[in-house]
Amino acid sequence: MKLKHIIILVVIAVGIAMILSTYTDASTTANFREASEQPEKTFHVKTTLIKTKTIDYDPVKDPELFTFYAEDAEGQTRQVICYKEKPRDFELSEEVVLIGKIKDDHTFVATDLQTKCPSKYENEVEDIEEI
Amino acid sequence: MEEIFFNGEHLFVGNLGKVFVALAFVSALFGTFAFWHANQSGDKTSAVSGRLAFIVHGISVLGIISTLFFIIYNHYFEYDYAWQHSSLSLPTHFMISCFWEGQEGSFLLWLFWQAVLGVFIIRKNTKWTFPVMTIIMLSQAVLASMLLGWKFGDYSFGSSPFILLRIKNPELLQLPVMIMNNIPPADYLKVITDGTGLNPLLQNYWMVIHPPTLFFGFATTIIPFAFAISALWIKDYRGWMRPALPWALISAAVLGTGIIMGGIWAYEALSFGGYWAWDPVENASLVPWLVLISGIHVILISRATGKSLGLAMILVMLTYILVLYATFLTRSGVLGDSSVHSFTDLGLSAQLLVFLFMFAILPTLVSFPKPWHRWLFVFSVLLIFLLNVIAQTFIVWLNGLAFIAALVLLGSNLTRHLPNPGGKDETVHSREFWMFIGSLILLLSAVQVTMSTSIPVFNKITLAIAPLFEVLHRIIPIEVFKNMAQGKIAKPVDAMMHYNRWQMPLAIIIALLSGLIQFFPYKSTSWNQIGKRLGIISAIAIVLTALLSWNFHFSVKSEFMLILFMFTAFFTITGNILFMVRGLKGNWTLSGASIAHIGFGLMLIGVLISSARKEVISLNERTSYGERFDAKETRQNILVMKNQPTEMGDYELTYRGDSVHGPNTYYQVDYQNKKTGEKFTLYPNAQYNEQQGLMPSPDTRHYLLKDIYTHVSSVPEHAESEDFWEDQEVHNMAIGDTIVVNRSIIILEGVEIILGGSISKDLNGHVLQVATLKVMFGDSVWWSKPVFGVKDGISSYNMYSIVNTAGLRFNYFPPEKTAEETGGKALHRIVTETQPPRYIIMKAIVFPYINFLWFGTIIMIVGFGVAIYRRKSETKKREA
């Protein structure tokens, strides 16, 4: 076997290892039910913020802790404990992608989250319909 | 239906713009055909018509830009583009930024740069002019088509920047009058007085220069691509490299500058706490650059040895295809949630995808040497395209298989038809061998970033061929296959770790090689010579590494990789400096590569130290960690009460208040270094935006060897009003009683009676009762003295007393009943009011050695400049 072939083989092997690691390192999108089946694993959960329930945040006590309630696509509700500073106007967001683990039947612990405010367009469409 | 005439619309300029777009598209198509024909037949008329078409095209592109700018400048908000991306208050110098906030505008910018580049190609008259211009005009036609906005039934071909607001988004007019069938009243423009404005994040000077630079970089990648395609097309397999190399170097320099500018913008204006986050949009611009750098090295190898010609072509062509892929990723909406700043779908994703495939199979088309093979290939592609059209969807498995087949055909054509010099393979003694290894490593680095960035795309693909993965899952029951079948793979939770784990070892090898290679002259050198030089460089690099590791407390046990990384970076720097001094003997025109590699080494030092020794100094130590599992990681914000000095690491901070300038609120934070006594003030700021909430921008204290970076993470609501008191309470207190209000402990220490005359003449005849309240908040103690005054038995005088830090205001009223009347103690009335706490929650990070990154970048760009000069003059000599 020539040096050339060894190099080609090594490159291909590393390439395959890279693809595999993309999938082994990757997280999974799930709902609360699926997340509770594997409580030790971190998931991405797409949820909707429940605006009728309380959002607790006392920055003077702990600036990096706030809790709220969220509902997933299946309609399950969990209290979410998030160890981060509360984004201002979090109350306005609709869709919240939680990144974290399930804790028990009632709570989900999020280490990070992504919020999506209603885009200015959708919001205005709603306003017009209300008129 | 009766046609409505709308008052006050400036329709002429928009129509003119649309004409320019159509003209640009048609002239580009015509030019493509004319240049193609000129090359195939050598026909003079075709050549002249091609050049004419290019002139018409260039004028049209300038026309589109001028009309669009005219619309924005004159605030014609009847146009959707002006309404969405500008406003009356937008300063003129930011109007230019409107061009890259919208998708259409950024296509326009790209179109403009490629047209400019076309001028440089068309000026010369070589055998490359016609084929290269054919490719450029084809690309121009594709880009111009993105701006057409022609509707065919439900399908729209391109998206016009000249569309009217009432047509594109009639529901957004927000008219007080009910809109019937989405047709606004004739004088609707009276209501549309202002646009929605430019995203505040783009109103930053880096955002004025970063996008045009990046797009110029993207645009330049077409020239090496076009040369490589032309080489296959006209079967001059070697000659393309000499004219293409300077262009590839220009492209690498500009694209590199654009990427780093994006990093600086992120560092200076965004608040994610760094210059690089492995965000898909950043990755999408980095990958073509990595592949291009790899391609430049393989071109050099190929020119020296005659080998690896096919790889040189593939890499250079791949660069442009990856630029198109990046455009598809960021503009089709496929990234969705996974990126903070990707564009939303304009309904162009199908069109983008078709064009991406079109350019991706272009190399296969021209790699067939025989014309009838080429026609057969075109026919098969059209057939597959038609099948997709008939099925009215992307037939993923068919397209996928066809695309793989096209790649296999390209590979087999290149191996069969490219000239092979034969002879022995390069040995491990030669410079080319190690350059080749380095290029492969760069390519691997690009592959890794592409794979991980493309997760959302893979989800779409695996979802489309779900049955395959369901079968796989049945055979090998691992969860990944199930998730792939459902398209539920999400990006890694710790993206930084995921990327760094691969990229750091690859960077170590690259740094080592770029230090090593300069000491192998082209062809072969003896091991003896190499060994002696290596010894010297290694010794210097080891000393520098030891010094820096000691300074930053790197641990040999746990941070060995980082120390190795540092060594290789110093190895590159010293190796290339020594080579410049001893090897080149002052022949500076040859020093481009060395300078660029020195810059690269400096950048690595900057990246390494600033990320490995990045220190969050705003660690929150006040609260207990409780049940938090990864507490140290996430506790990075500190609460700073207004006017209350707060300890933070080596510093004492005081938040002094905020002030508003334009759209920004600036939070004044005084820093005092407890060790050195040094004082400075930072003004981290934030914009409040109804759509996105609080958008903070950091403020940074720059030193030569470090930066102190500060941004506000959160501020309380009501922070705007200074004089806002709430929660009034009346407390009946005897002397010595204690109450707790708003976390403060308050003791009524006593009440004195003072005759007003003893204080001031104006108060003659007043009797003042002064309460003394001891207020304890945190570790601090204040005395507050509210006053109640009486004249002639009538309450006349009442002066409240404020304890700012505690957010408390006190009023005093004497007891209603004396001690005798109550039969116990007299109860004084203390009225408390509280101010909502005024504070900021902020994060502060020290980035050491970050200037090495910026300085290294400049050195690298200088190196590119020298190399471009050398290769350009080489081409000129050849032409003369």
* Tally of strands of chain B: 24
Global morphology of chain B: globular
Structural category of chain B: alpha+beta
Largest sheet of chain A: 5 strands, mixed, barrel
| Annotation field: number of helices of chain A | 3
Net shape of chain A = elongated
Low-confidence stretches of chain B: 339-343, 623-633
Q: Give the biggest beta sheet of chain B.
A: 6 strands, antiparallel
Under the CATH scheme, the architecture of the domain at 29-118 in chain A is: Beta Barrel
Largest sheet: spatial strand order of chain A? 2-4-5-7-6
Low-confidence sequence ranges of chain A: 118-131
Mean pLDDT of chain B: 86
Helical fraction of chain A equals: 25-40%
Q: What's the CATH C level of the domain at 29-118 in chain A?
A: Mainly Beta
Describe this structure in words.
The complex is a heterodimer of chains A (131) and B (880). Chain A has three helices and seven strands. Chain A is of the alpha+beta class and 131 residues long. The longest helix of chain A is centred in the N-terminal third of the chain and has 23 residues, at 3-25. In chain A, strands 2-4-5-7-6 form a five-stranded mixed barrel. Chain A has a domain at 29-118: OB fold (Dihydrolipoamide Acetyltransferase, E2P) (Beta Barrel). Chain A is elongated. Chain B is of the alpha+beta class. Among the domains of chain B are: 1-202, no CATH class; 524-613, no CATH class; 635-719 and 840-848, no CATH class; 726-817 and 824-835, no CATH class. Chain B is 53% helix and 16% strand. In chain B, strands 6, 7, 8, 9, 10 and 11 form a six-stranded antiparallel sheet that branches. In chain B, strands 15, 16, 17, 18, 19 and 20 form a six-stranded antiparallel sheet that branches. In chain B, strands 4, 5, 12, 13 and 24 form a five-stranded antiparallel sheet that branches. In chain B, a hairpin with a 3-residue loop joins strand 12 (699-702) and strand 13 (706-714). In chain B, helix 17 (431-453) packs antiparallel against helix 21 and helix 21 runs parallel beside helix 23. Chain B is globular. Chains A and B meet through helix 1, strand 1, strand 2, strand 7 and helix 3 of A and helix 17, helix 20, strand 3 and helix 21 of B.
